[in-house]
Amino acid sequence: MNRIKSVLVVICVLTASIVNGQAFNFSGKVIDKETSEPIPFAHIFTKDTRYGTTSNLYGVFDISLPGSINQLEVTCLGYKPITISILNQTDPILVQLEEDIIELNEVVVRPRSAESLMKEAFDRLFINYDTSAFALSGRYKMVSVFDSLLVRSIEAELDLCKARLDPARSYKVLPTDSIYVDQLRMINSEFDDYKLKAMVDWENTPYLLKNRDFVREFIYQNKAFEGMMKRYDFSVDKMVMLENRRNYVITISPKEGQRKAYWNGRFFLDEETMAFSKIDIVSTPRMFKKLKTGFGYKLQSKVNNVTYDEGAWRESVTYQPINGKWYFNSVNSSKEFLISSKNRGFTNVPVHVTIEYNTSELLPGVYTYDSANYLPTRSQGYWEVERFMESKYDSTFWNDYDTVESVNLKR
User: Fold this and answer.
1) 233 contacts: CB under 8 Å, gap ≥ 6
2) Which of 81, 210, 302, 325 is the most exposed place for a label (fewest CB within 10 A)?
């Protein structure tokens, strides 16, 4: 249901406009109820209508609504959704969201350090996770927005085909996932400024899903644990229940002076198996500075006359146990950054990119696919990828899909 709500919110953000009735502006700020920290990327929308927006990097939002609306829905990845009343409300409102996890009434944490817990989790990677070749079937959705203008929307039914990892081998390059596309549809806006679009359209293919499986990255990097210990501080926060399983919550933060530490976050370790069951990370300002020092950004920024002013992104990745092994399960990603272009006459315009992926099935054994249906890599050329994605559209499939989604939304 949360996935469906987020899809509805994106549609609201893309199409929000006032067409009937007297409009009024409503503003507020979304914060974490426990820490009082601002929550960026929260979705603020009205149920069963097209009005909606998102909070900015500082948790602040502003929305224009017809006078007939008196309630707003507020949702955000990792938090419990709430409904707020705005009847006769004229002043900005403070919205407090609670984390969407169940804490144990009685916390019993073994007398071990966060470092020792993390080391055990890394030591058990080849025990906990399937390193054979396998495939996952799932649904993918990406939406990118420039201010209120849709840049691109992609929905797909696809299979993630994981290559085998050999525990005895030291990998210099991680074996690449292949993506087999069953169905795909794509919407491009009437975005005439292609140079500007090039600076906005980061996630223009599902191929970047291969970079979201963090545990697989850990497995192939022999010294991943040592590198993390060098760059980050760890602490045991609390114990929670996820999917009826007890989990340690390990918080991470960059060590002082570590220039290559770019994230704050939390690792959820399953108490029984010491597997990574969930990883939540939020970029630090240093990550954005690193991006702007790269040669690729400097070149593209100069050629396209666009600069990134500030930004941040969140990634939440989950894993699920199946028959004694843990598998990649879901991704929720949200990027927001501000861009400017002097020769185009705009400053600090927000860009918002969201990604959702959910595994629906683990495909047993090694599947044999028609190679013509594998998503081309970027190295094969931009237009080759575009042609492939356009060729995968089946109107009958998506008409049936939209009918089912519409029924679900009305329930």
Assistant:
1) 252, 253, 254, 255
2) 302
